[in-house]
């Protein structure tokens, strides 16, 4: 068998390709950013053609760096930004519209209407999700209703939908010349269109959004030994590599963090941040504002589910300090600036740029900075930004404890923000539990590699994957209980100031 596994990680701000060996160690990588298109307030788009071009480029560059060919890869896994919606013509490959990104809020009226007439309760029961602009269903409906010719093309079977996993696989396996149109249970579950129990598209849910069924990809397991398809000789790999793993990015990080037992949890800090708690083969329906979602499904084994807390703004809050306010020149400077002060100076920043996600689900909320006085400086705002990341995670952790009865004992963390050691210390202080970062911080790409490798026997089982996991650093809480609870009370008060800001019809 070949010595390596390839992994495409198509994210919100960039696409990377990584190569891993049997020990789960990184062999090579290349990464490229793509444009964030912001046509108007609340709208966030990507150019799908640019994403495909960047995907091809990162594959070729990483393979060249490592001096490898397609024959050196035992299999290929793919992970992706979830919910981001692409509709394209299967005969030409051309997108009908830009990809509508998961952060986009233009469909808030669609979501609100679903809740008004009771359909929202059906979606919660069947799909495990609250009606929200976050998910793909409303975005597909918006494209069908607002882009000329798409409705007719969809009904004729020419316009097809996918999250970015489906779009990339379609291109890798032939595109308009027989490209495979598939997805996995984790991505399908983010549409509001899949039944959690049957793991199939649901006709009643499709009817709520008036979406033709033939637009949708075939739903498969997250890891399949026979493969979803093979890459082509004239593609970026220069030959056939079997694609055997697909996982939405947060589920991929759960696998990469080897959270295979019920009660194990991880938190990934990227553009947003996402905490997942493994609940085993049991579907736990949230009463506290969380999502019920598949964590993974390996081959013919039963689906393993999770509770998820999705937070819209994490790394993007730090980017906002850099790009919109100009008070830092790069993400790393947020740590050095925040270190100039001992606390937040009474300042709380609730970055509800896209409304509030879990556990609030309030699309009427907008960002607010509260508690300002003449005393405060840019350092206080930088610290309040890091604290906002951590307080939002506590909101989710509290909801998980209510729903599951599981008390968090340690939080496994990954993603770009974990390089900010002050932020991770604050996270431990606010939660009151240790925070643990693994040696391989890119657990999203690693999880997709694991799913692909398990399918072809590159790794025998999940026990072998556990042996690859090693801790890089652990942070212990330093705040006392009074400091922790006072801060959290003030945070919750700040959240109330963001509500009812936008009128949602």
Description:
It contains 16 helices and 23 strands. The longest helix is centred in the last third of the chain and has 27 residues. 35% of the residues lie in helices and 21% in strands. The strands form seven sheets. It has a seven-stranded mixed sheet. Strands 3-2-1-5-14-13 form a six-stranded mixed sheet, with helices on both faces. The protein is α+β, with helices and mostly antiparallel strands. Helix 12 crosses helix 13.
List the topology elements.
Layout: E1 4-10, E2 14-20, E3 26-33, E4 45-46, H1 48-66, E5 73-80, E6 86-89, E7 99-100, H2 108-116, H3 119-127, H4 136-146, H5 150-155, E8 159-162, H6 164-172, E9 182-184, H7 185-188, E10 194-195, E11 200-201, H8 203-209, E12 218-220, E13 229-230, E14 242-248, H9 249-256, E15 265-269, E16 273-280, E17 291-296, E18 304-311, H10 315-325, H11 331-338, E19 348-350, E20 368-370, H12 378-404, E21 411-414, H13 421-431, E22 435-438, H14 443-455, H15 462-468, E23 471-475, H16 481-496
Helix pairs in contact: 9-14, 10-12, 11-12, 12-13
């Amino acid at each position: 068998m070949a010595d390596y596994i390839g992994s495409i990680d198509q994210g919100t701000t960039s696409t990377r390709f990584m190569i891993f060996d049997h020990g789960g160690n990184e062999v090579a990588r290349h990464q490229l950013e793509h444009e964030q298109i912001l046509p108007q307030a609340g709208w966030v788009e990507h150019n799908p053609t640019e994403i495909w071009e960047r995907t091809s480029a990162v594959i070729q560059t990483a393979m060249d760096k490592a001096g490898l060919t397609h024959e050196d890869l035992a299999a290929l896994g793919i992970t992706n930004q979830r919910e981001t919606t692409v509709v394209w013509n299967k005969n030409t490959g051309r997108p009908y519209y830009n990809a509508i990104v998961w952060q986009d809020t233009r469909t808030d009226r669609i979501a609100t209407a679903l809740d008004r007439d009771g359909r929202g309760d059906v979606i919660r029961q069947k799909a495990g999700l609250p009606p929200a602009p976050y998910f793909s269903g409303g975005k597909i409906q918006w494209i069908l209703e607002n882009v000329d010719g798409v409705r007719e093309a969809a009904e004729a079977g020419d316009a097809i939908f996918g999250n970015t996993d489906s779009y990339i696989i379609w291109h890798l396996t032939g595109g308009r010349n027989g490209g495979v149109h598939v997805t996995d249970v984790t991505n399908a579950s983010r549409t509001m269109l899949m039944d959690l129990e049957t793991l199939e598209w649901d006709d009643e849910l499709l009817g709520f959004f008036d979406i033709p069924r033939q637009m949708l990809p075939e739903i498969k397991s997250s890891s399949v030994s026979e493969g979803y398809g093979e890459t082509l000789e004239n593609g970026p790999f220069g030959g056939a590599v079997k694609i055997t793993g697909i996982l939405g990015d947060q589920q991929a990080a759960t696998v990469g963090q080897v959270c295979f037992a019920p009660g194990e949890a991880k938190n990934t800090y990227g553009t947003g941040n996402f905490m997942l708690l493994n609940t085993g083969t049991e579907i736990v329906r949230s009463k506290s504002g969380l999502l019920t979602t598949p964590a993974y499904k390996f081959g013919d084994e039963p689906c393993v589910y999770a509770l998820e807390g999705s937070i819209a703004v994490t790394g993007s809050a730090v980017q906002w300090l850099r790009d919109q306010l100009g008070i830092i020149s790069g993400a790393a400077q947020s740590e050095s600036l925040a270190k100039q002060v001992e606390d937040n100076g009474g300042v709380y920043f609730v970055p509800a740029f896209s409304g509030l996600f879990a556990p609030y689900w309030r699309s009427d909320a907008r960002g607010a900075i509260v508690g300002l006085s003449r005393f405060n400086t840019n350092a206080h705002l930088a610290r309040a930004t890091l604290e906002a990341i951590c307080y939002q995670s506590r909101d989710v952790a509290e909801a998980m404890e209510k729903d599951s009865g599981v008390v968090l004992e340690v939080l496994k963390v990954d993603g770009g923000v974990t390089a900010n050691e002050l932020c991770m210390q604050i996270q431990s202080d606010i939660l009151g539990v240790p925070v643990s970062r693994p040696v391989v911080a890119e657990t999203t790409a690693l999880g997709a590699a694991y799913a692909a490798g398990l399918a072809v026997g590159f790794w025998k089982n999940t026990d072998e994957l556990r042996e690859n996991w090693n801790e890089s650093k652990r942070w212990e809480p330093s705040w006392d209980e009074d400091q922790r609870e006072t801060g959290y009370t003030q945070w919750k008060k700040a959240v109330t100031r963001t509500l009812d800001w936008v009128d949602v019809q």
